[in-house]
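Ligand: beta-D-glucopyranose. Inputs:
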Amino acid sequence: MIAIDLSGRRALVTGANSGLGRAIALNLSAAGARVAVHALNDRVSAETVVEQIRQGGGEAVAVYGDVSQPAQVEKMFAEVDSVFGGLDILVNNAGMDGAREMCAGSDPEHWRAVISVDLHGPYFCTRQALRRMLPQQRGVIIQITSVHEFIPWAGYSAYTSAKAALSMFTKTVAQEVATQGVRVLAIAPGAIRTPINADVWGNPDSLRDLDQKIAMNRPGEPDEIGRVAAFLASDLASYITGTTLVVDGGMLIYPDFNHGG
Ligand code: BGC
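Predicted complex:
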């Protein structure tokens, strides 16, 4: 039987206090990893995830900080060092869609904030992670991008730009470290049922509209991303680097073409 085995691995998942990050943290733990559960500042939700992991027999710790601030990222990684003694897996999951604003009328500060969290954040965290992974010649870095690394999305130009850039960042860094035991890759989720898009799947009309954009005709569940992250972080995926695995129920296969044409 083939099983995902992350025992002995030390992981940090950013934005692990809810949504995809939470599911990823739980799945990494279920596969045997020790997990640092990062949150911006919401202690209640982060501690709840830590508690859930401990109750399942796993080991976890909560860490806090703003991923867009390099000094806070440095401090957060030092905390993980002091508890786990190093790092083997980083999942850059923390991110935000931002407000829906057409480019012409958009607020530059909003645009900058999305780029800071969704692009600079993974850069700062990747940089710190590599400093730990390269000397030990072992590590996996997973970026959570989005189908919007490929699909334009009116009103979200900061988000789509950040995700497309994060994809190229992933490939470039993967190329830099490929011979040094570190894999760098991305998961591009489609519409997954999390708080980030609760306003869409929580309303019957917008859910119907969303379903039509997905070949499988339903949003994904957080666990359907969490399981993939555990696989990619494991040695089962030892030959996968510098690429994006799309996990979207078929959003990218032009579902409208199942008729007409
Ligand atoms: C966004 C979600 C959206 C999905 C599909 C994701 O990247 O975060 O809000 O539902 O893409 O459009």
